[in-house]
Design a protein that fits this description.
Layout lengths: L4 E4 L5 E5 L5 H8 L7 H16 L4 E5 L15 E4 L2 E4 L11 H10 L4 E3 L13 E3 L3 E6 L7 H10 L4 E6 L10 E5 L2 E4 L3 H13 L5 E4 L9 E3 L2 E5 L1 H15 L6 E4 L16 E3 L5 E5 L4
Parallel strand pairs: 1-17, 2-3, 5-6, 8-9, 11-12, 14-15
Antiparallel strand pairs: 2-16, 4-5, 7-8, 10-11, 13-14
Length: 292
C-alpha cells in the first residue's frame, strides 16, 4: 500500500518566520533615510502574526534573526515552496543572498523537503515574485535587481508539473505586493496602475479562470489564504471600503483574521513576505488543484 497521499492546494502544516534583529532598523533607512521603526511595535506585530497563524491550524516555527541580514524577517523571499519541493531562491541584492543558508538547512534537515538549487549563475528570483494559484504559477519579472527571465526559468525547471508564466511587472514592485490569492480560485488585486497593468497581463495569459476581488489599495490586496482561513490587514491600515469588500465578498465561514503591519512596511515588507508556508511532510507528494 502506498504511503503517499494527496492534499489540496493552500493546505499547510507549518509556517516559518524569522525573528526581527536589531539591525532591522537599518533596512527601513534604505527606503527612507529619515525612517524610524518602532522596534517594540514591530516585534509586537510579528508576535501577533505568529499567534494568528496558530489559529489557522499550522505549527509556527520561529528562527532567530541574524544581525548581518537586516531584512531576514522577510522569509518568503528566500524560498518557493509548493508541495514537498522547495526552490531555494537567489535574491537580486547580494546583501540578502546569505539569508537562504539557514532556511535551506532547516527545510532539508527538519522538514525533509526536496531541495532544488538554482544552477544558472545569472538567474535571479525572489519568492515575492512567484504566485502559485493552486493550478498554475506566475512569475513577475521586473526592471530592478529582483527576478529576471533566467530566474523565471529556474521556477519552470523546479516545478515541471505546473504551467509557469512569466509576466512583466512595471517598476520595481514585487508581484505579490499587488496581487495575492484570497481563496481557492480568487485573486485579490490592488488599485495602483502597476497592479492593474500586471493583472491585465496575467488575465490574458492565464490557463484557468479566476474570480477577482478588486480592492482600493495594494496593501489591502496583500493577504494570506491558509487552510481555509484568510489573514488580511487591519481596518485602520486598509480603510473601510477595502475592509468591507473583504468581509462582504469572501465567504470563509467567518474565518477571517486581521493583523497590523505598519512598522514592518517601513522596511518595504508586507504580510506575505513575513511568512513561509510549507507542507513539510514527505507523505504528501501531489497537490490536488482546487480549480476546475
Amino acid at each position: 500500500m502506498s504511503n503517499r497521499y494527496e492534499c489540496n492546494a493552500f493546505e499547510y502544516n507549518f509556517a516559518i518566520l524569522v525573528r526581527i534583529p536589531d539591525s532591522f532598523q537599518n533596512s527601513a533607512r534604505k527606503f527612507d533615510p529619515e525612517a524610524e521603526v518602532d522596534m517594540e511595535k514591530a516585534r509586537k506585530e510579528h508576535k501577533d502574526l505568529v499567534e494568528t497563524l496558530k489559529k489557522c491550524d499550522v505549527r509556527t516555527i520561529e528562527l532567530d534573526g541574524t544581525e548581518e541580514y537586516p531584512e531576514c524577517p522577510f522569509v518568503d523571499d528566500c524560498v518557493v515552496a509548493i508541495g514537498n519541493t522547495a526552490l531555494i531562491t537567489r535574491p537580486g541584492s547580494k546583501t540578502r543572498q546569505g539569508e537562504v543558508s539557514e532556511i535551506r538547512r532547516y527545510l532539508q534537515s527538519q522538514m525533509k523537503m526536496t531541495i532544488v538549487e538554482i544552477r544558472d549563475p545569472d538567474a535571479i528570483v525572489e519568492g515575492g515574485d512567484v504566485l502559485f494559484t493552486g493550478k498554475e504559477i506566475f512569475v513577475g519579472i521586473g526592471t530592478g535587481r529582483r527576478t529576471n527571465e533566467k530566474g523565471a526559468q529556474a521556477v519552470v525547471d523546479a516545478f515541471p508539473e505546473y504551467n509557469v508564466t512569466p509576466i512583466n511587472v512595471p517598476g520595481s514592485r514585487r508581484l505579490k505586493s499587488m496581487l495575492s490569492m484570497a481563496g481557492w480560485d480568487i485573486i485579490a488585486v490592488g488599485s495602483s496602475e502597476e497592479a492593474l497593468l500586471t493583472f491585465k497581463q496575467m488575465k490574458s495569459l492565464a490557463q484557468y479562470k479566476y474570480r477577482i476581488l478588486r480592492l482600493d489599495s495594494d496593501d489591502a490586496a496583500n493577504m494570506l489564504y491558509v487552510n481555509g482561513r484568510l489573514i488580511h490587514r487591519s481596518r485602520d491600515e486598509i480603510g473601510e471600503k477595502s475592509y468591507s469588500a473583504i468581509q462582504d465578498n469572501l465567504d470563509h465561514n467567518g474565518l477571517h483574521h486581521e493583523v497590523t503591519c505598519q512598522e514592518l512596511t517601513k522596511s518595504g515588507g508586507n504580510l506575505i513576505r513575513s511568512v513561509l508556508l510549507v507542507l513539510g511532510n514527505t507523505l504528501y507528494r501531489k497537490i490536488i488543484s482546487t480549480l476546475p
